[in-house]
Amino acid sequence: MASSNISCLAIRHTTRSASASRTQLNWLLLKAVITRGGGDGANPDLSRFKQHGGKLTIFHGWSDPALSPLETVQYYKNVANKMGGMTATQQFARLFVMPGTQHCGGGPGPNSWNPIAPVFFWVESGTAPDQIPAVHYQNDDPNSGVITRTMPLCMYPNQAKYIGGDVNQASSWTCPSSN
Residue 101: left (phi > 0), alpha (psi -120 to 50), or beta? Predict the structure, then answer.
């Protein structure tokens, strides 16, 4: 599933069964788009979502020319303030801000990642994602098959830190702990 098709969606998945069919997952995606995830996208009170076992990952590119990533960061901070602080919020909702990535992809930053797998694994195993592997394809085209950069997407407020080596290799980056 190409990230460009769904990278701007926040998806709630509370099904505890690993046997969810592709049709069921597509229906969840469609429902999230139609109902805007059940909210207006501005209300920081996610208590009902949390009470129902919801898990949320939010993605935004730092280089988005259409929508300011600072608005998304502020929204996430508002959620944290409403929901008992950053640590409490990270138990059910995590933000990943991608360096060099434009609106829903494009730009020199990572432009392809799997936004569904981390949520699915979080729901099924209880292990929340601290980082998500991402790649950049030549000419922003996954069909080229040519990967020009790999790097981790770090959970906010962390940002990938260069630790030495080839800047285009994920092994040259780390997601430092905010604790």
Answer: beta
The Cα–Cα gap between 21 and 106 comes to 30
pTM for this predicted structure: 0.76
Phi-psi region of 141 (alpha: psi -120 to 50; beta: other; left: phi over 0): beta
pLDDT at 3: 37
pLDDT score at 157: 94
Higher pLDDT, 145 or 177: 145
Domain ranges of the chain: 3-125
Are 119 and 11 in contact by the 8 Å Cβ rule? The answer is: yes
